[in-house]
Amino acid sequence: MSKDIVQIFDTTLRDGEQVPGCKLDKEEKLIIAERLDDLGVDIIEAGFPISSPGDYKAVFEIAKIVKNATVCGLTRAVKKDIEVAAEALKPAKRPRIHTGIGTSDSHILHKFNSNKEAIIERAVNAVSYAKTFVEDVEFYAEDAGRTDNEFLARVCEAAIKAGATVLNIPDTTGYCLPEEYGAKMKYLKENVTGIHKATLSCHCHNDLGLATANSIAGVINGARQIECTINGIGERAGNTSLEEVVMILRQHPYLGIDTNINSKLLYDTSQMVSDKMGMLVQPNKAIVGANAFAHSSGIHQDGVIKNRETYEIMDPADVGVNASSIVLTARSGRAALAYRAKNVGYELTKTQLDIVYQEFLKYADRQKEIVDSDIHEIIESSNIKIESIS
Ligand code: KIV
Ligand code: ZN
Fold this sequence. Notes:
By secondary structure, this protein is α/β, with parallel strands linked by helices. Helices cover about 40% and strands about 15% of the residues.
């Protein structure tokens, strides 16, 4: 069965870089953009060109070097923003302008002191103006998550008529439940005239830890683009994590939906972004965290040593991690100790293992983790004669 492809729109260099303390210089942005292109992302949101001369220059240089992906620049629904973005995107093989405006009651009233009709007019003017520079124009309805569906459908319809090729439905505040966000996509699919002319896009923030679930719900209900970042970095609690949505779709082939991502580069890309941004990846982060393929309890270790699939739904090699790891702690059992001892050169008989295990527990109660050098020491202090097999 041929699969539907969901476009991966990476916004690590725009929404991701908004994280306090994660500012990148131009060279770092270029290195990350090249890597994102190799990773297979379909669209790279390179920055917000009007926001600063540095961001303008970075978008311009990224537009020059990216070979495969579409390069996108963010704007507000403001003429000058659109002109500056168009200029910055000039060297791109495939340029996209991403323009939009807030559509929720809260944004219309408090941000714009405006009304619904005027917002639609501004949306249409922005898309039409962007269209005079590039063919590919994405429209975002900021705070779509809290915008009532009927009005959202009117805005989307007007944006499509003005020429929008992609409709971004951001859950800007990370408020929606997956069912609600999925239903929003379904509503737009069923109620927006001309919807077949545009791609619906999910852009979910993680304030309630639901960004990934919401993006997947959006895709199940008809969206064909996901906006996400490496390691899920972004404003406040972050954006949808790229590695999570990619692997969810790959691990659930019956959905019939996949991406163009080379998943074997995920771990390395995660490390690269973490390193350049100086932002550590939490150890329990799905897919790319240090503990994502580490097993430390005796029951799990015994299972994984017998057959990896007892406690792992993914092959670590598929995301670029060398191997699953068996971590030795005071919760580990004999199977794990025998396995790790063998890896460092000792084949233990059952009797020897019983003795060494008692010694191991004394060490393990004193320290958080037992490393390879400790294993040699433990075996020596067990006072038994063991031939090293190495
Ligand atoms: O979260 C959001 O609404 C955004 C838009 C500017 C696309 O980042
Ligand atoms: Zn955002």
